[in-house]
């Protein structure tokens, strides 16, 4: 960045959030450049989902600043936030599909309820988005429970891109899939992100997927950023947390809570 850093898509500085006095996010700094793909890694409970929720304004940090396109979003009035949220596409952990809605109604949910797109048009857009994630039009009238895990992920992705967002948040987009399907979904993510020219933050625990979709990687541990660097440094960076994570070792600075005492 040559303009003093103002062209970052998303910039966090000192973001801190506590629950009952325990810091779940601790002084987090993060910068996402336009059209970059950042992947968050870290153990369970390290603060990854909370970080995305903070940027979305679903939880308000106790301290710190969160800028999107140079605009401060912490403390933004509710009506302004609703407008502002429209630029985000989000794939929540476990997809968060509504069981009682058909596939196309899930994909078109925000078009119908936030963008006031007429139903017939919303359905057309949904079918087109389903096509972009490799699902035939006949999928549109099924219910989520009728789909395989891989198809549900595709529907979740179709919903995330339905409004042509320029920022995408993907929370575990390949969790629970077999390795081949994970690769297929990863490539789909890359293709759709390229079409949209979107900036992306994903949460991924599968290292093969991290390598496939990340430009840069940020590692959290107990709410703190313990490593941040290009994906090309994943195997060589001299960082004890990262080395343990990549080696999937039980020995190292990351300690899982004991199951029995
Ligand atoms: N609504 C909440 N109330 C209390 N604690 C929470 C809440 N949301 C998250 N936490 C705590 O914050 C920490 C980070 O959670 P989270 O961001 O969901 O972790 P992960 O890295 O697995 O996505 C965890 O210790 C979790 O228990
Ligand atoms: Mg999570």
Characterise this structure.
The chain is an alpha/beta fold. The chain is built from 9 helices and 10 strands. It has helices at residues 48-56, 78-85, 103-107, 109-113, 119-132, 149-161, 179-196, 207-213, 240-247, and strands spanning 10-19, 22-32, 37-41, 63-68, 71-72, 88-91, 167-171, 199-203, 216-221, 224-230. The longest helix is centred in the C-terminal third of the chain and has 18 residues, at 179-196. The mean pLDDT is 92. Bound molecules: adenosine-5'-diphosphate and magnesium ion (MG). Adenosine-5'-diphosphate is lined by residues 19, 24, 42, 44-50.
Could you outline the blueprint of secondary structure elements for this entry?
Blueprint: E1 10-19, E2 22-32, E3 37-41, H1 48-56, E4 63-68, E5 71-72, H2 78-85, E6 88-91, H3 103-107, H4 109-113, H5 119-132, H6 149-161, E7 167-171, H7 179-196, E8 199-203, H8 207-213, E9 216-221, E10 224-230, H9 240-247
Parallel strand pairs: 3-8, 3-9, 6-7, 7-8
Antiparallel strand pairs: 1-2, 1-4, 4-5, 9-10
Q: What descriptive keywords fit this protein?
A:
6-stranded mixed beta sheet, 4-stranded antiparallel beta sheet, alpha/beta, 261 residues, binds adenosine-5'-diphosphate, binds magnesium ion
Within the largest sheet, what's the order of strands? 6-7-8-3-9-10
Residue-averaged pLDDT: 92
Ligands bound to this protein structure: adenosine-5'-diphosphate, magnesium ion
Low-confidence stretches are none
